[in-house]
Prior knowledge:
Elements: H1 10-13, E1 19-23, H2 30-43, E2 47-52, H3 57-62, E3 73-74, E4 88-93, H4 96-107, H5 111-119, H6 121-128, H7 130-146, E5 152-155, H8 164-178, H9 180-186, H10 191-198, H11 200-211, H12 216-226, H13 230-245, E6 249-256, H14 259-274, E7 279-287, H15 302-332, E8 338-342, H16 351-362
Parallel strand pairs: 1-5, 1-6, 2-4, 2-5, 6-7, 7-8
Antiparallel strand pairs: 3-4
The structure holds adenosine-5'-triphosphate and magnesium ion.
Amino acid sequence: xxxxxxxxxxPELLEGKRVCICVGAGGVGKTTTAAAIAVGMAGRGRKVAVxxxxxxxxxxxxxxxxxxxxxxxxxxxxxxxxLGEGGELWAVMLDPKRTFDDLIDRxxxxxARAAEIKRxxxxxxxxxxxxxxxxxxAIEKLYELSEADFDLVVLDTPxxxxxxxxxxxxxxxxxxxxxxxxxxxMRPTGFGMxxxxxxxxxxxxxxxxxxxxxxxxxxxxxxxxxxxMTEEFDLRARRVEQLLHAPDTAFLLVTSAQDRPLEEAIWxxxxxxxxxxxxxxxxxxxxTRPLPRGEVxxxxxxxxxxxxDACLADHAVLAARDAANIERLRASFAGEPILEVPDLSADxxxxxxxxxxxxxxxxx
Length: 364
Ligand SMILES: Nc1ncnc2c1ncn2[C@@H]1O[C@H](COP(=O)(O)OP(=O)(O)OP(=O)(O)O)[C@@H](O)[C@H]1O
Ligand SMILES: [Mg+2]
């Protein structure tokens, strides 16, 4: 693609894709973009599920739902009005605790064992810890929905100060649940107890890293309860890895054109490529576009005209910064597409807002 060619649209980027993961720094518009992409792709006749994370309540309302659930709820088709025919949109709001519980129900050898695990203090801490469990369960939910009969699953990702957290946290937790330290601990004849006494520091440090918990007795009980399930966790982890690396998965990087998110976007794209993950392109959101000066009314009182001029000058500075940053992003990409969405002034808080965002991403 030459620098002058029009960037592709979202449907072009997602051609042949079954999974779309919207990643990026905190507050750049991941949740909104994921919703707009899902709405638009459903409008193109696909059966789409979107997993949102901590959406503003008004986003659920914008989708015509009084609330969102951990299980997919069908968005009323009149919300796709004007966008096309024949598709379906289903929306989920990730509930990490319930997703974790569902996973234990699926993996445990019996309902009684599942119930016991869910009562365990360590489990309760891990499954409701804010750090790590959202990332882990987001991926788990994605895996679950990718097995259902959707044409496309769009995943929003948790607010992270650092986008890299999204990639590293699930692995940390999976390594913990299925890892070799745990297997060594599970060996019979008291070896595990000895290990817990002598060699548990890295393990406990691992747990503390994930959850901040270090309850020794609950921990022993937890490992005992998980005995026999670790292979299942390992197997699931491998399948999830396959899904994330699959050629019909798309990682879309959402960013703003501000300095820090943009730096992070450049770094994040390098990380995705280094890890062999299918990076598909970037969406630069809330871009300040230059204003045509001709629109300024000329017959204003002098003081007001001065204020307007000052505002326009500020705006021009922001627009120039955004343009320069987008150039920088382009230079660091190996020709991967960059889509731009302007700052839509009023927050994107209702169905009109989503449609406006959709028009930018789908150019129709
Ligand atoms: N193009 C846009 N123009 C105007 N407002 C926007 C645009 N995109 C997103 N917003 C607004 O920006 C705010 C943040 O968006 P959003 O919640 O989607 O970000 P996020 O990346 O999901 O944040 P977090 O990392 O906290 O989850 C919201 O109030 C949203 O309505
Ligand atoms: Mg969000």
